[in-house]
Amino acid sequence: MLRLIWNASGHTAAYLRAYMPSNILLDGIRSRSGLKWGIPAMLIAVPYFAFAYWCTTLIDAGGPGWLHLIVLVTCWSGLKFIVMGPVSVILLAKTRLVERRARRRQKRSADAAEGHQFVTIRRGRTRRAPTGYEALPDHEHGPTYLGRSSGALGA
Q: What are the 10-residue block averages of pLDDT along the chain, 155 residues in total?
């Protein structure tokens, strides 16, 4: 019996996840391009709670008892949208941090391939420092290329 209930609840959850409009919309908000819509999506909870309130007034006026199930589903969907707002902000901040770290890592590897190294200046901040000798193209260094001493001595 327990196995039957377990399987039925799993299949019901999979069906509702795939076909309920609120779950489809929440899956879209959880995607990378949809994270910015988490806070505005909190407003979608208002119609859900309004519909739940309307159903409760129908129940109080002598309506059928199965409306309690509708109230439960609409309140649950409304709460999901309210919670998704702050969660999407946290997920967006986390995703942007990961992307920033990846861009830095990529830039550092590109600079390392060009022969640059990074020097820590203070509080963990780094800057690019040249490694080796960076010559001007075609030896365009001018009279100081060989050093001042040879020109100053007249040799």
A: 91 85 88 89 94 95 92 94 94 93 84 63 60 53 53 51
- The CA distance from 94 to 87, in Å, is 11
In 3D, which of 82, 83, 85, 54 has the Cα closest to residue 70? 54
Q: If you count them, how many residues does the chain have?
A: 155
What are phi and psi for residue 46, nearest 5 degrees? -60, -50
Structure tokens at 12: 């019901």
Burial class of residue 35 (count of CB atoms within 10 Å of its CB; 0-12, 13-18, 19+): buried
The burial class, CB within 10 Å (0-12 / 13-18 / 19+), for 74 is: buried
Do 77 and 131 contact (CB within 8 A), yes or no?
no
Whole-prediction pTM: 0.62
Distance between CA 44 and CA 28 in Å, rounded? 14
> Is 82 within 8 Å of 24 (Cβ atoms)?
no
Structure tokens at 147: 């050093």
CA distances to 51, 76, 78 from 46, rounded to whole Å, are 9, 12, 7
Residue 56's identity, in one-letter code, is T
